[in-house]
Each structure stands twice: as structure tokens, then as C-alpha cells.
Specification:
By secondary structure, the protein is an alpha+beta fold. A hairpin with a 7-residue loop joins strand 1 and strand 2. The protein is rod-shaped, with a radius of gyration of 33 Å.
Length: 118
């Protein structure tokens, strides 16, 4: 009787080992897709060698399209609505004192007056 229990126990252990070992080989995820490799974000800057205005996209999202005025630093986001269609929306800059302005702080500073030599 003891030998039969031991044989049954060993058979069950071998069966469970084979079952769980093979389950790892045949396992399929249920409703979960394998991970897609992550795309690296665009790390370019908006600049232009020849024009005043530059259009750029800073990520893969179509909502991250901008137009930059390279002379003043003013920035607009290219937006779209069903009623209007495409339009430019001003992107405000936050100054050090907490105010929001259309131009960056560097373009708001008064320019130094140069004295004309006689």
C-alpha cells in the first residue's frame, strides 16, 4: 500500500512538472500584446538659415506642431477645430515675476543705446 502511494505521488509530481514546464513554452498572452519598442522623441530645435518663420514638430504627435518667429521669439501652436479649420494659437511665455507674455523675456529687455562718437 505504501509503495502504491509513493508511485502515485511520484507520477503526479512528474506529471505536474511536465505540465508546468511545457506551459511556459506554449504560453500565449491573453489580450496583452508584446511591448512595442519605444520611439525616441525628436530632439531637434526650431531654427532657420534663410527664413524668418520656422515650422517644426517637437514630437510624434500632430498636436505638437509649432511656428516660430526667429527674429522676435514669438511662438504659435498650429491648432485645428471643426468650425474654423487650421489656425495659429499664441503660446505665452511665463516671465520670472509670474506674468504671461507673448514674447520671451530676452526680447522685452530695452536695448542699450550706443553713443555716437564724433
Amino acid at each position: 500500500m505504501c509503495r502504491q502511494k509513493r508511485t502515485l505521488f511520484m507520477g503526479l509530481a512528474i506529471l505536474l512538472t511536465l505540465l508546468f514546464a511545457s506551459a511556459q513554452l506554449w504560453a500565449q498572452p491573453l489580450g496583452i500584446m508584446s511591448q512595442q519598442p519605444q520611439k525616441t522623441p525628436h530632439k531637434g530645435t526650431l531654427c532657420s538659415d534663410s527664413g524668418r518663420f520656422v515650422f517644426g514638430q517637437i514630437s510624434d504627435s500632430s498636436k505638437d506642431q509649432f511656428m516660430l518667429d526667429t527674429q522676435t521669439g514669438r511662438l504659435w501652436r498650429i491648432s485645428e477645430t471643426g468650425r474654423i479649420g487650421l489656425f495659429l494659437q499664441t503660446v505665452p511665455y511665463k516671465s520670472t515675476d509670474g506674468e504671461y507674455k507673448d514674447l520671451p523675456a530676452s526680447s522685452l529687455k530695452p536695448k542699450k543705446k550706443t553713443e555716437k562718437s564724433k
